[in-house]
Amino acid sequence: MTLEALAKQGHTTVYDSLVASIGPKIREIRKEFIKDSFSGFQQVEHRLETVAIIHGMEFINDSKSSNINATWFALENISRPVIWIVGGVESGNDYAILRNLVRHNVKGIVCLGLDNSRIHEAFDELNLPMVDLVTMDEAVQAAYYMGEKGDVILLSPACASFDLFENYEERGKAFRLAVKNL
């Protein structure tokens, strides 16, 4: 099976697919059945979910990434320039872990939350365009205007949602609606 035939792209998906195929292979399940399963996989809501492609920019909802590790995998999984929507209620996040990925993969940061001081402390030195906003509509519009054809607008907050939203699902739905309203 070619990598392009996988329903979900990215090298973390390749790793997951390799691991997931071991059990069926050991049980001698036909290759065609395994291939059909991987090529027909449906995206999981709020986890690297492509919401839309508008003017050549892909909008990805990764609202479920409410910690540094999940956001690290999201940023590492995308090979195109990223406008990153980040922020919320954080519990002592060490954003330094993300600094190298942000330096190489991110071209703009949209901080969405009531207190973004720790995000600024971690990334101001990179001299990337950065704005602070408190509504998802504003955040998506700002990201859209920062981006250009070929970029990815990624909501991957690295934080809990409780400052502005009830939970990550509500935050993800607000992202989808804001993208739809562009």
Which terms would index this structure?
single chain, 182 residues, Protein-Tyrosine Phosphatase, Chain A, 2 domains, six-stranded mixed sheet, 40% helix, globular
Layout: helices, strands, pairs:
Elements: H1 11-26, H2 31-39, E1 49-54, E2 57-61, H3 68-77, E3 82-86, H4 99-105, E4 106-112, H5 117-123, E5 130-133, H6 136-146, E6 152-155, H7 168-180
Parallel strand pairs: 2-6, 3-4, 3-6, 4-5
Antiparallel strand pairs: 1-2
Helix pairs in contact: 6-7
Description:
The structure is a single chain. By secondary structure, this protein is an alpha/beta fold. The protein folds into two domains: 3-39, no CATH class; 49-180, Protein-Tyrosine Phosphatase, Chain A, CATH 3.90.190. It is 40% helix and 17% strand. It has helices at 11-26, 31-39, 68-77, 99-105, 117-123, 136-146, 168-180; strands at residues 49-54, 57-61, 82-86, 106-112, 130-133, 152-155. A six-stranded mixed sheet has the order 1-2-6-3-4-5. Strand 1 (49-54) and strand 2 (57-61) form a beta hairpin. Helix 6 crosses helix 7 (168-180). It is globular and about 55 Å long. The N and C termini lie far apart (37 Å).
Sheet with the most strands? 6 strands, mixed
Average of per-residue pLDDT values:
86
Looking across the biggest beta sheet, what order are the strands in? 1-2-6-3-4-5
The CATH class designation of the largest domain is Alpha Beta
| CA gyration radius, whole angstroms | 17 Å
Number-wise, the strands total 6
| CATH-level-4 superfamily name of the largest domain | Mur ligase, C-terminal domain
Weakly predicted, low-confidence segments: 6-12
> How many helix segments?
7
Proportion of residues in extended strands: 15-25%
Which descriptor suits the 3D outline? globular
CATH architecture of the largest domain: Alpha-Beta Complex
Q: SS-based structural class? A: alpha/beta
N- and C-termini, Cα separation = 37 Å
